[in-house]
Amino acid sequence: MVENQDNVWIGLEYFCNEGDFLWNMKDDEFLKFAIDEMVKIDVLEQEDVLDGAVIRVPKTYPAYFGSYDSFDVVRSFLDGIDNLFLIGRNGMHRYNNMDHSMLSAMVAVENIINGVTGKDNIWDVNTESEYHESK
């Protein structure tokens, strides 16, 4: 995902509403805000940040209709990208709770550390029937 193998790409998502404080924040202020948060939780050092971008996307909550029955085609294609690990509710387009979203991230990190490029163990998070909601 990056040209230089010594660099890391990190994507952050902030959920907000059109017109609220985060949505209206200027790009440079938003980047500083996000970097400061990552520094605060010891994910990175500010001086190591090379670049940043802000992309505002309205109404991006996953929708489970339309072509969702063909999701296996999309998953198969994306799983073929060795250094791309989809995690969480939006990344996996799966209605995970926060615990399962964080667990999928932790499994992805373990895969990266151990050089595992397969994604099945990430997709196996939240497949236990006792965790699924019922009508």
Question: Any idea what the radius of gyration is?
Answer: 17 Å
Total of helices: 6
Number of domains: 2
Query: Which whole number gives the mean pLDDT?
Result: 87
Roughly what percent helix? 25-40%
Largest sheet: none
Order of helices and strands: HHHHHH
Report the structural category: mainly alpha
Shape: globular
Q: Which spans have pLDDT < 50 for at least 5 consecutive residues? A: none
Beta content comes to under 5%
Termini, distance in Å?
Answer: 40 Å
Query: How many beta-strand runs?
Result: 0
For the structure shown, list the relevant keywords.
135 residues; mainly alpha; 2 domains; 6 helices
Describe this entry's structure for a reader.
By secondary structure, the chain is an all-alpha fold. Helix content is 39%, strand content 0%. The protein has 2 domains: 1-60, no CATH class; 68-129, no CATH class. The protein starts with 20 loop residues before the first helix and ends in a 12-residue tail after the last helix.
Short structural description:
This protein has 135 residues and is mostly helical.
Q: What is the topological layout?
A:
Layout: H1 21-24, H2 27-40, H3 71-79, H4 88-92, H5 98-113, H6 120-123
